[in-house]
Specification:
155 residues, mainly alpha
Length: 155
């Protein structure tokens, strides 16, 4: 799968998880159900962001040249998301602001996705990068990151 299709698929999957979480909040679900979805969101976003920052953004920055503001903004957005992810992972659904943090993270991600898919991705497509090779590299790196996160969670 090419890099842009892969990253877009990640976006759809995490958006579905945010919708699932919102529904759990609406239905006043048990904390353990909310914790499970919140953890999936955090894990998925962590792997996605790391692979994107390590592989996709440097390639996009090289390809886009003058348009590197898009990459800079995306990198800053990732930093804000990582901060919220850390706060979510360090707390639990029974804490006062947990649902609000997940909600705000979802809003950050929604904004970030619109910019990537609406501005960055079309420009990268035109730049004639080898998106298939980048996709393979991103897939491999995401698998490594997910393995590391799983090993860390078990210890």
């Amino acid at each position: 799968m090419d890099a842009i299709a892969l990253l877009t698929q990640d976006h759809r999957e995490v958006q579905a998880l945010f919708k699932q979480y919102d529904k759990l909040v609406e239905d006043e679900a048990e904390d353990d159900e909310k914790q499970s979805i919140a953890q999936q969101i955090c894990t998925m976003l962590t792997a996605h962001a790391m692979a994107e920052e390590e592989i996709f953004y440097p390639a996009a920055r090289d390809a886009l040249g003058d348009d590197e503001d898009l990459i800079d903004e995306a990198t800053v957005e990732h930093a804000s998301a990582k901060d919220l992810i850390a706060q979510i992972e360090a707390s639990s659904p029974d804490e006062e602001l947990f649902d609000a943090k997940v909600k705000v993270l979802g809003e950050y991600i929604e904004h970030h996705v619109k910019e990537e898919e609406g501005e960055m991705f079309p420009k990268v497509k035109k730049a004639k990068l080898d998106l298939a090779a980048l996709g393979a590299e991103i897939t491999a790196r995401k698998e490594e990151i997910l393995d590391e996160l799983a090993a860390g969670a078990e210890s």
